[in-house]
Design a protein that fits this description.
Elements (H helix, E strand, L loop, with lengths): L3 H24 L15 E8 L27 H13 L2 E8 L1 H5 L3 H11 L6 E5 L9 H18 L4 E5 L13 H12 L3 E2 L2 H5 L9 E3 L5 E3 L3 H4 L4 H14 L1
Parallel strand pairs: 1-2, 1-3, 3-4, 4-5
Antiparallel strand pairs: 6-7
Length: 250
Amino acid sequence: MTSVSGKRFMRAAVMAAVVLAVLLLAGTVRRGAADVYAADGKKIRILFIGNSVTFHEKSKGTWYGNWGMAATKKGKDYVHQTCKLLKAKKQVKVKYKIWNSVYFERMSNRGAMYRMLKKKLKFKPDVVVLQITENIMKGSNGHWVKEIKKLVKLIRKSSKGVKIVMLGTFGPFSAWSWKNGNTVKRAVCSAMDIPFIDVSDIVSNAAYKNNYSKVRGDDGKWHSVTVKGVAIHPNDRGMREIAERIVAKL
């Protein structure tokens, strides 16, 4: 017959095994799709791959700061609002980087383009937000499905367990803009199990656009937006809505 002390020892051993199993399981979710917030003890790394909605450099007489067009200031674009929401709602600290998707959309030397991206992916992101296709000028749906799938495969290969989310298309921003972005991106998301974030209601709602309102430039002064291509970009409210939808998918 087992002694009382022996029974206590057995119970303690079982409890220790259970605790160890839980800890080991928790360790396996680092950068996993199920709980991205478990990464690095409440710290996550996000790579935003996007065009002017994500980031646009200053351009004399056209755009007045270095952030997502057309938020009134840096902290109001969707990149910064996403980071702030994650901190407020999920109690996580975010380290982020941005890679300009115009390289992906326009660069004819695909090998050079992917080498550039590989360097950026050394960041080892836990999350990648894809805001792409608005600046594509030509190409069949089939061609771009293959290209975006290749992009996704490279991201997944470079950062194990990464969570990818795909934003729907903003625009078209001009007459030459490619019109098939949503069709292609939905096909890729369906085939590769990627959350698709529809933004069609943001695109169609004037309340979410800059509409020639003023922005506060890097110089601290207020500037009037006078260019249509800028004015149709999201305003602060639109950027907030984009951020809310991204956080909801993580």
